[in-house]
Structure formats: C-alpha cells, structure tokens
Design a protein that fits this description.
Layout (H helix, E strand, L loop, with lengths): L3 H21 L4 E3 L5 H14 L1 E9 L11 H5 L4 H4 L2 E9 L32 H11 L1 H15 L13 H9 L1 E2 L6 H9 L3 E7 L6 H10 L1 H5 L4 H16 L2 H7 L3 H7 L6 H9 L5 H9 L13 H6 L12 H17 L2 E8 L11 H12 L6 E9 L4 H17 L4 E7 L11 H9 L4 E5 L6 H10 L3 E4 L7 H9 L3 E4 L1 H7 L18 H6 L4 E3 L4 H4 L3 H10 L5 E2 H13 L4 H22 L4
Parallel strand pairs: 1-2, 5-6, 6-7, 7-8, 8-9, 9-10, 10-11, 11-12
Antiparallel strand pairs: 2-3, 4-13
Amino acid sequence: LDTVEQCLLMKEAIFRFVLHYRVQTKNFYLSLAGGRKTMSADLQRAASFFGCEGLFHVVDTQLKSGIPKFSPEELSAPAKEDKIKHFMPISIGKEKGNPLWQISFGNFNALEPADYPITDTNKCYYCTLINEVEKRLGTSDSLLVNFSQNLMQEDLQSNFLALYRLNPSLIKRLKTTHFGVYPEQEDYELNFLRKFPKAELHCHLGGIADVNGLISIAKANEHAIKTIDNKKFHSWRKSLTALVHKGNLDQIQRKTKLPKELGAYFTKIPRPLPVVAQILAFADNPELLDHWIYGNLRNPEFFHAIGIQKYEKLGDLQGSTLLQSKTSLRAACTILKEYCRINSIRYLELRCSPEKYTLEGLTSKEVVHTLINELSDCDFSVFRLIFIASRHGQIDELKRHVQLALDFWEKNQNFIVGFDLAGDESVASAQDLRNEFMPLMEKCMQLTIHAGETMPACSIWEAIYHLSADRIGHGLRLIDDPELMEKVKDRRIALEMCPSSNFQIVGFRDNFFPLIHDQKIYPLKKYMEAGLRITINSDNPGISRTDLTRELHRACRLTPGGLSLWDLLILIRQGFRSIFSQDVRRQLLMNAEDEVVRILTSQWSVE
C-alpha cells in the first residue's frame, strides 16, 4: 500500500468482506493482527459499523527467530502447533454494530452484499460502500428518526414506543416471525408468549376454575360437609365416591345430579354443600371429573360452535352454584392470583354479579369486601372489579346491582372501575335497559357491554348509542357494518375479543384444525387493519380450558397465516391502553414496555 488511492481501495475491500461475512455467517470473528496499521484501523471501523461476534488482536510470546512466514496454503488450512505456539490471542470483545446499515424504508434500502460484490476492485466500484457508510454516519440522527417515524406510520395502532428504537434486524424478525401456523411449534410459542406482561380485561369470576380448581374450592369447604347431620346425604355421598373409585362413568352419570336437582333432593342442606360433596367425590380422580363435565368436548376439535346455552351449562358446577361462602370466594381468589402469576398478567379486571352469591347468608357488600380484601394484597398483579347485570335476570336484581355499583363507586373508585351488561343478547336489548343504566351514565361510570357475539351488528349499535359503551365485549358481528366500524374507531371504543370462547360458541376456522369445515374467518385481523383498538382476553378460562397466554396464541391460530410477533405486541399494548383504572394505567404501560424490551433483547440476540 504505497498511495492514498491504494489505501482507500483496501478499505473498500475490507468493508465489503466484512459486510459479506456479517450477513452470511452467524459467528463471525475479526483479527486485527497483520498488515498495515491502516488495515487494522479499517478492520476495527468495519467491525464497529457492521458488528461481529468477536474482535481480537494477537501478540507474540518472545519470538527468537522473527515472525514465521506462512504460505497461502498454510493460511487457509488449520494452523500447526509449532507455528502458533508463540502467539497469544487477546480478545477485544463483541461489536454490536450500528443499526444504520440495516435500515430500510421507502426508497432507502439496507446494505446488501449483492450490491457490493467482492471482485477485483476497479473504477466502477471505487469506494461506493465506504462512501455510503460515511454518508449514513453523517446523517445518522435524521435517518434513525425517519426510520422510526416510518414504522409508526405503517401501524394503524401503535406498538410499544421503545420497540421502534430497536435494532432494525430485530424489528424485521418481529414482523416476519408468525405464530399459530404450525402445530409442532405450539409448545415453543406458548412458552415464549407466557413471559410477556399482559392485561386481562374480560374475565368472569364464575368461569375461572378448571376441574382442579373446582376440587380446590370444594376442599376449602370440606369441613362444613362433616358437620351435616343427614344420613341420606352421607349415604349418597359414600355411594358416589365408590362409583368414582370404580371409574364407571355410565353409573356415575345416573348417580350424579345437576345443581338444581341437588337443591331439590337435599332441601334442608345449605345450597352449595351437595355440589361440594359431588365434586369431592372426584378429588382423587380429576381426570374422570373432567370427562364427566366435558365428555367428547375434551377434544378441542369437537369443542367448536356448540352455542351459548350448551357452553354456559359447562359452568353449572361453579359460579353462583359454588361460590356461596367467604371460604369459597377466598379459594377462588387464590386460583385467580396463581393464574395471573403463571401467565405474567400484570392487571386483571374481574367481572362478577355480587347479588348471585348471596343465596346462603352473605350480603352483596360482604361479597365485594371479601373480593377486595383478597385481591388487594397481590404483589405481582393489580386487580379491579367490574359489576355485571344479566339480560336474562330480573329487573329488580339488575337495579340492585346498579345501586350497589353506585354505592361502591363513591367509596372505592380505585377498585370498582366499571359496569357490564352480559347474557343472551336476544333476551333484552341495550335499548330496553337504557332507563336502568341511566344512573350509571349520570355518574360517568365506565361501561362495557356484551354485544355482537351472537346477535347482529345492531346490538353493538344499541350498546354504543343507548348505553354509551366505552368497550364492547366480543363484537364479532361488527365486521358486518363498515360504517359502525368507523364510528367505533373514531370513538376509540375497545373490543374485548375472546378467541377460544368465540371459537367454541360461534365457530371459526382454526389453522390447527384443517378438517373443520368452518369457512368463517375470525374478524380480528380485519379489525386490526381497520385501525380498531383490540384486546385479547380469556372470558371464562376454566370453562374454555384456556388461559390468557393461550388466548393470544388462539388469536394467531384463528388468523389465516397467523399473526406476527409484532402484531401480538400491539395487541398486548392495546390491553394496557384500554384498562378502566386510570390511576394505574400510565405506570402499568411504562412497566410493561420496559419488560417487553428486556425480554426481547435477552431472548433474541441481534444477528
């Protein structure tokens, strides 16, 4: 290297070699030893720009006869011990590289090896790569800002803001990695998703327990069973337990009874205890209890489009049937907290109808205070309550729930955050109940309304225009009314979508079940493309045999081609943005963003 021009050409060659190997080789190392000092400097500069797994120098250990000479053949072959024993490698460390070389937006492209071939350097390629590198370094601030802004403009709903500042290669990976397409990847994808912070906005207290949860709640009431003085009851209980031990499901079906039948059969025994006894008979065989409740619906392909009435019957053993004591409520809260811990749920709005848990002596206020006391001391999740009124309940009961909500709203606005209308939409419309909801609207209480799950989009229209809904539960039929979709977008009304229960009640195509001949496409992706605010929730995790992690994954499965991890993180962020509890929303969103970035940067190395 005798001239400035030759030094520049060597620099160009070095940068091209580093670019090629950086793209083609995962574990790429660079040595600064040998050659002119300008070459070492150029190698180090190329490493700092493109990145490498390791950068090192070499020093000698008292060479006596000068530096040995290596032929080209020896340089390309494994080194011999007698040639290298006097050399010591000194690690300088890993170079992360500069994201500028990977930026691509509009007419601005990432640096690709094909555009800078490794050939005999001639005038047509003269310093084109190093000139481009210097140009990018000189405008780095504006390039990165424009890149981030371009990404934001591509998203109709924003992702966590810190993600737009990630390395472009990681962003590309987030956008091109799709979940919910290949069944063999399910375990990996679920384990990965389970780590991310989540907000659960649509979860019913009466549907949180799976069979193990039912047994856990029943065991909490076992002491009360032993105090019952009724030979008929204990004889029935003993014979049922014996049948369970034999495992004869047909005989068990004849011996067991529905909750209403148990109440009529044991009229003098407190309502939940016969149900408790029936569940306890299966204490040593939860698998059989699962079979008794679900039958062939244990096969997820059969648990599809069964309708709302059949779905609700699957929860007959829990909810108001079982949760009629403080002991049961506390046990249910323990289950709920463990559910949140396992699924990294940082915030959960629990829905319940306190009046329904007052059949055996508790008052509605005692029910609420028990839930508040049990859920206020959790150090990994924030809990809030939403009261529910049922469309198919008595008007007097609905009014009592409204008044109860108003009473607690005045005193516990930080814990009681909203009111919900649920139940079969065909029984009573939002318009029919406007007068009953007026006291809530006068106090500006936040409202979420089940609508458009099984009824047409007009049910959603009524929820918005007659009840001033802030959020819509399910909203599956909104897809049928583009004008109403635009109104939902303009008002920033969030949709609480529950993929598993939607699949199980209504029925949609699932990427994992190609033999199901259901042609209905889940509207989630269309809603996202329209810029709607979408949240993913579990609805009744115990009944639907799911959890919030699985709901995010089921959302992918119900979407043709799956959802990208970038899409999933948008959905997670929308969950936090849409929570009713204004006092913690901002901090939870900031904490979630930090947690997401930490998970991504630790789990996915930048390649």
